Structures are given as structure tokens and as C-alpha cells.
Amino acid sequence: MDPRLDLQARWMSVGSADIHDGNGCHNAGRQAALGAITGGDVRLLIVFCANTPDPAAVLAGIAEVAAGVPLIGCSSIAAIDSSGPRWNGVVVTALGGPGLSAATGVGRDAAAGLSAAGAAAAAGATELAEHGHRVWCCSPMARF
Description:
By secondary structure, the protein is of the alpha+beta class. The chain is built from 3 helices and 6 strands; from the N terminus they run E-H-E-H-E-E-E-E-H. A 4-stranded mixed sheet has the order 1-6-2-3. It has a two-stranded antiparallel sheet with strand order 4-5.
């Protein structure tokens, strides 16, 4: 069977961790990523940070576990996982498996050139393998 058609091999899971102080950001990112990555062939991480004093440390912790995996996300007042709202912590959703691919891009200075910023953000999609279906997510306010 073509692995792109084997839906059983694709997976999605969620991991989360609380941040109790500013020094725990790195470890929270690492623990949330470890909890989220439950299968092989990780293709995309979606990260939400709630009231995180050091998002760079969160990202460094995630990178220890999943270096080079495309990542999107944002900060928020709460991050929600299966236990409900997490007011001070990190939630990571991981997607993976054969036949799934992801790429990210960023467009900057939209006020100076909206079309150029949009083209720059979408440029990452040209790196994707050809599949029968595509989804493009765009966040106009992303700063994370």
C-alpha cells in the first residue's frame, strides 16, 4: 500500500507542562515536546505558551527534543489541553507520519508591502512534497 494512503500510520498527540517560575521555561518546553512526540517521523509542532516569561527558553527546550521540525504557535492568556485551561505553561501538539509534510514561512513589514510580505510567508509552501490535499494556515498577527 502507498504510505501516503495509510491513515493509520499518521498520528497527532498533545503534551503539556506547567511553568512555575521564569527558570522553568526551558524545561517546560522540553517536557511538553517530549509528551507530544509519541510517534516517529514528526512533521509539525504547534506550540501555545500561556503567560510564559521567557518564550525563547521554551523554544530552546523544544529544539532539544525536535531540532529542525517546523514549528508554528503563539502566546496566549491560556493554553488548553485535555485537562482544561493551563494558565502558566506550554502546550505542544505534534503531527507526524508518512505522507504528511509541513513547511513554515514568515512575511515581514506588511505595512510597507502587503503583497511582498504575503509572498514571503507563502514561499515555504513551495518546499512541500506534492500531495493530493494541502492546507495553508496564515496568522496575520504572529510574533512568536
